[in-house]
Design brief:
The protein is mostly helical. It is 70% helix and 0% strand. It contains two helices and no strands. Helix 1 packs antiparallel against helix 2. The longest helix has 23 residues. It is elongated. The chain starts with a helix and ends in a 14-residue tail after the last helix.
Length: 61
């Protein structure tokens, strides 16, 4: 795993955790922000041919 792949994976894991916390707290704005962040990370991972399990749900492909 490259450093770039590791960074994307770590960012995805943090965003997923934050998303879950926001959902539990009922914070709809933060849910939207985190979902957009995850979609952006999924696009970036796809563009670079990276497989990040935390992003599978957010990938358009």
């Amino acid at each position: 795993m490259t450093e770039f792949h590791a960074e994307i994976s770590q960012r995805a894991a943090r965003a997923v955790q934050s998303l879950r916390s926001a959902q539990e707290a009922g914070d709809d704005y933060l849910v939207s922000v985190r979902e957009a962040e995850l979609e952006g990370l999924a696009r970036l991972a796809t563009e670079h041919g990276l497989r990040v399990p935390d992003l599978a749900r957010y990938s358009a492909a």
